[in-house]
Amino acid sequence: MPDSLVGRLLGTADMLKSSIEEALAVADLSMAKFGVLRILADAGAPMALSEVAERNKCVRSNITQLVDRLEKDGLVRRILDPEDRRIRRAELTVAGQEAHTAGARILATQERELLGGLSESHRAALVVAMERLHG
Asked: Which pTM value belongs to this model?
């Protein structure tokens, strides 16, 4: 399978993921942790963990574990929902906002470095190809 197109796509995806994970580790982040920080930063307001899980396209138990780790790292805090005290919401701390900013910079740098060898037309073609694969 390594010589097949799918094998090459998977190999490239693994290489990109490894490179990005390594770069994010410098900021004590992983792609999973950064994903939650990004969702919370984009929301601009505290979110129920079920909403975070839905936006992250994963099960609530995974988000609960990620938020536990982010909370332990001081990047996220849980708060009660003002309208329904049974619901816990997650929000970024100041340190979480800073970590999100640092992670976003790292990802931008990685994109420039990893895709710098592609022309604009190759990048555009890659976007079209990925969109078609996603259906």
From this structure: 0.87
